[in-house]
Amino acid sequence: MFGPLAVAQAFAPVLAANGGGALVDIHSGLSWLATPSAYPSTKSAFWSLTNGLRLELAAQNIQVVGAHLAFTDTPLIAELDVPKADPRDMVAVIYDGLEAGDLEVICDDISRDVKQKLSGPLEALYPQLADN
Question: pTM for the full model?
């Protein structure tokens, strides 16, 4: 989380001096979920940071976009045996969101499904809780 904050702090003055611009933070669909590891917690903190930066930088005409995506074919998840989205497709979706002025871009079906379930009962996200 400190890396993206440092990037925002470095580039925001440059963008503001040039009349504004955009920062895109790449989030995971795990930004909204909990698992028995620290990874989703760091993604959730990053999501919160993005939301705060959006508010802080709006007056400087800087659009801060949070892009949520699940499994994308990158070296980070090369070894996972799961269906993966093409990074070029994800970039195209993000650019479309930027052009539309979106504050948040939900890039793929997995992320859309998770986001939709957030407004439902907790058991929709965590079926194992239904038995308790």
Answer: 0.83
